[in-house]
Specification:
Layout lengths: L2 E8 L1 H5 L3 H9 L4 E8 L3 H7 L9 H8 L9 E9 L1 H9 L12 H5 L1 E2 L5 E2 L2 E3 L3 H11 L27
Antiparallel strand pairs: 1-3, 1-6, 2-3, 4-5
The structure holds 2'-deoxyadenosine-5'-diphosphate and magnesium ion (MG).
């Protein structure tokens, strides 16, 4: 048993259907620790990077519309990092199979997912499928300071003429 981190995203349908609490309760059955969490407005660039391995799939354009909220008029997702023993497999198990019709009915996707008439699987949650994908995805979605454990090596950089919004 190894301790590892995994990325979970509650997709726009999960937020729109007010399922966030239910999904977090289901995920708490894993007894893993949440070490990072935030609500994210997903832009095209983040969506394309997240799903880069699927860009040649026929459902890719719909998938991008889905994760960027265009199918639900709800551009919000919740991104979470879970950490603990066998985190990747434990989370994938509770999420269920990719196709909601084939997913165990008591899994998150089995209970709350559906297949759209376009054929896209609207399956409520994303979960990393292996350690290298988990590392890539956590680094894509989270800055080091947004995670309470030092999961991966970091480096210090100095930005010059760096503009950002702060509270007035
Ligand atoms: P998973 O999310 O289980 O890791 P994936 O990475 O292969 O599955 O695909 C990402 C998402 O794309 C998936 O959650 C739903 C959608 N998708 C995958 N395969 C599909 C298919 N054959 N038809 C429709 N949508 C699909
Ligand atoms: Mg995947």
């Amino acid at each position: 048993m190894k301790e590892e981190a995994t990325l979970v995203i509650i997709k726009p349908d999960g937020l729109k259907k007010s399922l966030t609490g239910n999904i977090l309760s289901r995920l708490s059955e894993t007894k893993l620790k949440i070490i990072g969490a935030k609500i994210v407005k997903v832009n095209e660039e983040l969506a394309a990077k997240h799903y880069s391995h699927l860009k040649d799939q026929p459902f890719y354009p719909e998938l991008i519309k889905y994760i960027t909220g265009k199918l639900h008029g709800e551009n919000r997702v919740m991104a979470l990092v879970y950490w603990g023993k066998d985190a990747i497999v434990k989370v994938r198990q509770i999420c269920g199979a990719t196709n909601p019709e084939e997913a165990d009915p008591v899994s998150i996707r089995g209970a709350y997912g559906r297949i759209l008439t376009t054929g896209l699987y609207e399956n409520v949650v994303h979960a990393s499928s292996d350690p290298s994908e988990a590392e890539r995805e956590i680094k894509l979605w989270f800055e080091p300071e947004e995670i309470v454990y030092p999961l991966f090596p970091t480096k210090e950089v100095i930005y010059q003429n760096y503009k950002k919004f702060v509270w007035e």
